[in-house]
Amino acid sequence: MKRIAVGRLFHESHGYAPATAAADITVVRGETVIEAAKGNGTTLGGIVDALIERADIEILPISDSMVAPRRHRSRFLC
Known about the structure:
A 3-stranded mixed beta sheet has the order 1-3-2. By secondary structure, the chain is α+β, with helices and mostly antiparallel strands. The chain is 22% helix and 32% strand. It has helices at 31-37, 43-52; strands at residues 2-11, 26-29, 57-67. The chain has one domain (2-12, 24-67). InterPro entries: MlrC_N. Pfam families: DUF1485. Keywords: Plasmid. It comes from Sinorhizobium chiapasense.
């Protein structure tokens, strides 16, 4: 049986958002990575969904870390 490790490090940013703080980071580890990713429409979710269908593959979840941008500092450019 093939063993495939899966994980994700996702950080979306832009110049008009405040700096990212450690408290903004969401981290999921272990089997929860697989359960949270199933069918959720993300890239990791697509990979997990495809691998689950394969009887010859064991999925080894590593971690899923995500940071989304905070609100804009300003709505207008000055």
